[in-house]
């Protein structure tokens, strides 16, 4: 059978080694008072690393993860690749299946706060008829999914793997939600197999502009200017990951403090936290995400997806005609006007969310669930 039960079970020796490495961190200096302005704040990171090494309870986190149903799905690849999913059934028979796809530098844990809101809406003040069967995937190269061992695992190849997963789970057609790289995968899926998708639900500003049309509206001109400014100030990480991911992998796969610095800086910059990261996330939730990257040794393979996307020769291009709902936050990287999104998608539903940043499922799961129920109600 292509579907196998899976239990999160990290050997104690791996966790002990992590704690020892954290205790032996060699710290760089920092300009006093510079905070996050030049990168990850050293004082904050020291505090997090100390907590990770001494107080963070990975066995308890592992038990919380195992409260969900985990599966590994063979995706018919010569390498024997498997995709990890969390699969939770809705409270009614025939619930709408929905695939959830995360991006970088998060993982399937970004989706976990959303799951009970979608699978059992009647427990959260909504109608049971709005229930979903949820499949939260770990992208190949992330978490407990296989790390690709050959080139070619670009967004389009991952889209094919999503189809294989959903077919193996018995879903001929399904809805889907994603943001960041997950949204890129779903774009490829919608362009290549529109008949398999009932509708798409997306979030997140995309700072990649591509060719800029000549007939921009005033709002679109402002958007392009903001995106260009963002690319200059914030996109150096993506250029490195798109060109030389292996160089970074040596450092980040060897130093958990370095891994934390690289990832937490992005959560601080992209979340609606206004400089106080733990006003949005609990420290232990942030550390669960980091620990997954560490124990699976997937920081290198996760970054390689940027390289594969930038060098893809198979990516499809065109306008997505699958009905698309967008839940967009003005507190993401920068606001995206609807007219810009409509150049690439058949946008039939548009919601402006007043709070939350780039990781909406984690930051404001209730608002995301409400918008998904509202949008997908016409596509069941």
From TrEMBL:
It comes from the Bacteria. The keyword Secreted does not apply. InterPro entries: AB_hydrolase_fold, Epox_hydrolase-like, Epoxide_hydro_N, Epoxide_hydrolase. Belongs to the peptidase S33 family. Residues 4-110 form the Epoxide hydrolase N-terminal domain. This is Epoxide hydrolase. Keywords: Aromatic hydrocarbons catabolism, Hydrolase. GO terms for molecular function: hydrolase activity. The keyword Hydrolase applies.
